[in-house]
Amino acid sequence: MGFVGITPHAIGLYVYLTLLLFVGGARCFYLPGVAPQDFGKGDAMKVKVNKLTSVKTQLPYSYYSLPYCKPDKIVDSAENLGEVLRGDRIENSPYVFNMREPQLCKVLCRVTLDAKDAKNLKEKIDDDYRVNMILDNLPLVMPFKRDDIDATIYEHGFPVGLKGQYAGKTEQKHFIYNHLTFVIKYHKREDTDAARVVGFEVKPFSVKHEYEGQWDDKKQLTICDPNTKRTVTSSDSPQEVEDKNDIIFTYDVDFQESDVKWASRWDAYLYMADDQIHWFSIVNSVMIVLFLSGMLAMIMLRTLYRDISKYNQLETQEEAQEETGWKLVHGDVFRPPSHSDLLCVYVGTGVQFFGMVLITIIFAALGFLSPSNRGGLATAMLFLWVVMGIFAGYSSSRLYKMFRGSEWKKITLETAFMFPGIIFAVFFILNALIWGQESSGAVPFGTMFILVLLWFGISVPLVFVGSYVGFKKPAIESPIKTNKIPRQIPEQAWYMNPIFSILIGGILPFGAVFIELFFILTSIWMNQFYYLFGFLFLVFIILLVTCAEITVVLCYFQLCSEDYLWWWRSYLTSGSSAVYLFLYAAFYFFTKLNITKPVSGILYFGYMLIGSYAFFVLTGTIGFLACFLFTRLIYSSVKID
């Protein structure tokens, strides 16, 4: 297969399409605080609505899938790739506020429920769905006090409704929150009369509104009336959800001046109630891992130094003929492993994944991927994954050529399609399940086509470019020659059994991340913000060190027992931490989540399987590369006859 000639026009079209695809992704590099919006007194403030979310089902739905008041024309906001993948569906709403002009008992509309609407509302109330809104890019929150920490905690959105009983009755009824009391906090600028939004809070109430005579939108209500300053303060007479019931939606708006500046308005959203536990756990994990790593490094340095000195001194003595330990297998240690093609593919994919994760965490820690830029994190990761394809191709072809392989195009195709193909297949099946539930979380076919275009149009060519460059380089030479006849491996002790040592090796890397993993899982499955990327960067560095050291130590013990089949075992040793990650995800599912629907459970374990597989590729590659450098170092340090 040769390269086909490419015209300048085709190159120009290719570059244009590439820029067009990533114009949404480029918005992910956003520094918080660069684009504040000023509102003068009386300026219109438009509220947008987002998806309905539930921690019980994990299936988002569009806001207008419920019988809420609709504007004259529903307009979708422009969404980047990450927002679509998250299931965000941001649309306009009939709620319109005016800066620093409070409103009392504003009537939005009246809705008459039919049987389908009532059934839908009851299901959403049973599943604890919450309504999400946005004002000036700030999400709507419900504040509540926690006595144990003497602080205000914020929950995203507000519940669709609640369940309860009438006095003296035992039958459970469903009630909808149809009256919203909004509190908009603003910070007034000193130099002008303009103000900036720094908080968007709500208190929902369920109220059965009553009126006299025929209904119209300007009808005065008896329970709340702006003329008599009568307002809703409780849900003592709630609005029941039943077929043919009329529901009147109303809202209040109050404005409160705040000392919080615009640049700090996200601090309250990112506040962690259990930050002391988090800090203690992280520091404790760091200290344990550093202690173990230091101890292992000391053992390795002392033992290796003694071995190398002894072997080099024996060259002039008769004992040189009686080699023992890791030097004895020097003629087989660099023998290509079985299924070497597959190893090359996984190492290349791991390098690609490592580059994506490292750059993403660095940019997030520097503040470029703020939560205010919805979908920015996912968009950035996709963009970086595609670009890092060039390093995947380069790494896999370099290793493949060292194994004396000649079909570089075959290894390139496997690198470009194996890992993304498996991930895409699982993702497609999960997406089909979401489609079956008619959830807005289902990725549209247009977006699916863009993902395939990114894969085939950009990632695959970059993998080929990297592989071509890597294969043109001179082959990596082994420090010592490999014997033609493989040496027989002696019977191993029980603790050197491959399965046992591989599973033992994964415990320490998992121990370095499992505390942080709890907070990451909570942010993903409990609809909370995660913004401790500084800690995450530290944990990632510790993970690298731990994977490298535990793999090197176990590899050294393996070579000392005259077992030279280290290639795959080094990859699987640190990669086995993914097994513990998946088991912890299962433990988290049964102890922390309240998911009851089978489809939601399948989605959870499907996505955690994808995450565990990616973690396996990442940690396995780190362990392999560390062991690869280690073996080259020690065998080039001794004199071999």
Structure description:
47% of the residues lie in helices and 14% in strands. The chain contains 16 helices and 13 strands. The longest helix has 39 residues, at 275-313. The chain starts with 7 loop residues before the first helix and ends in a 6-residue tail after the last helix. Residues 1-34 have low confidence and may be disordered.
First CA to last CA: what distance? 44 Å
**What overall geometry do the principal axes of the alpha carbons give?**
elongated
Instruction: Give the structural class.
Output: alpha+beta
Range of helix content? 40-55%
Question: Biggest sheet, open or closed, and with what strands and sense?
Answer: 5 strands, antiparallel
Rg for CA atoms: 30 Å
Q: Flag low-confidence runs.
A: 1-34
Strand content: 5-15%
Q: List the secondary-structure elements in sequence, H or E.
A: HEHEEHEEEEEEEEEEHHHHHHHHHHHHH
- What's the average pLDDT? 83
Count the E strands.
Answer: 13
Number of helices: 16
Key traits:
641 residues, alpha+beta, five-stranded antiparallel beta sheet, four-stranded mixed beta sheet, 16 helices, 47% helix, disordered N terminus
SSE inventory with pairings:
Layout: H1 8-21, E1 44-53, H2 81-86, E2 91-98, E3 103-112, H3 115-126, E4 130-135, E5 138-139, E6 141-146, E7 151-156, E8 158-159, E9 161-164, E10 173-176, E11 179-188, E12 195-205, E13 246-257, H4 267-270, H5 275-313, H6 340-365, H7 376-387, H8 389-402, H9 408-436, H10 445-472, H11 498-505, H12 507-525, H13 533-560, H14 567-575, H15 577-592, H16 598-635
Parallel strand pairs: 11-13
Antiparallel strand pairs: 1-2, 1-4, 3-13, 4-5, 4-8, 6-7, 9-10, 11-12
Helix pairs in contact: 5-12, 5-13, 6-7, 6-8, 6-9, 6-13, 6-16, 8-9, 8-10, 9-10, 9-16, 11-14, 12-13, 12-15, 13-14, 13-16, 14-16, 15-16
